[in-house]
Amino acid sequence: MGRGKIVIQRIDKSTSRQVTFSKRRSGLLKKAKELAILCDAEVGVVIFSSTGKLYEFSSTSMKSIIERHTKTKEDHHQLLNHGSEVKFWQREAATLRQQLQDLQENHRKLMGEELQGLNVEDLHRLENQLEMSLRGVRMKKVQMLTDEVHELRRKGHLIHQENNELYEKVKLLQQENKELCKKAYGTRDVSAANGTALVPFGFAIGREQFEPIQLHLSQPEPENIETSRASGSK
């Protein structure tokens, strides 16, 4: 009595399932090897068990087999879909041409050209569209001008702050200049010592202080000369 027909379905018992997997895996890899040798075929087999373990066989290189499979599949797919792809791009080109034509026609209407065939309602709609566009342009212009004004105000504020800081520095230097003059000339009037009054924001001491002092020998008086001569003659 021969064996009955095996029902192809999942084996529930894990032990029996593992034994069957091991036997059939070995048989499959053996058949793949025989096929590659007998028929000079390039064969690649990849098996993952239920536990995730990898088993594989390749007559040459598994990487080259996978690359060849991918390229052949893509070429075959392109060959089958070449006709449908051409039709798809033809439809896309026709759609784009129609959109371009509509845009050009709408642009001419916005420029006030080719208004023949438009009724009052169409003209009113076109007028509203132009007003909305003009309103958007004006709003953008106002926004840009407002931003420029804010930027100028910000720069003006910074310049004003710098001016105040410089003014405070000048006042401090003036005060230091006065104190130095007081130390140099004691309790005398600083303006008199300088030869000139201190002007606002002026730091230089009077010009006369730096001029050289001219020393001259005084000439003897005539009376003294005559007296000395008389005493000499006696």
From TrEMBL:
It is found in: Nucleus. It comes from the Eukaryota. Residues 225-234 have a biased composition (Polar residues). Residues 215-234 are annotated as: Disordered. One of its GO terms (biological process) is positive regulation of transcription by RNA polymerase II. Residues 86-113 form a coiled coil. Residues 1-61 form the MADS-box domain. GO terms for molecular function: DNA-binding transcription factor activity; protein dimerization activity; RNA polymerase II transcription regulatory region sequence-specific DNA binding. This is DEFH125 protein. It comes from Antirrhinum majus.
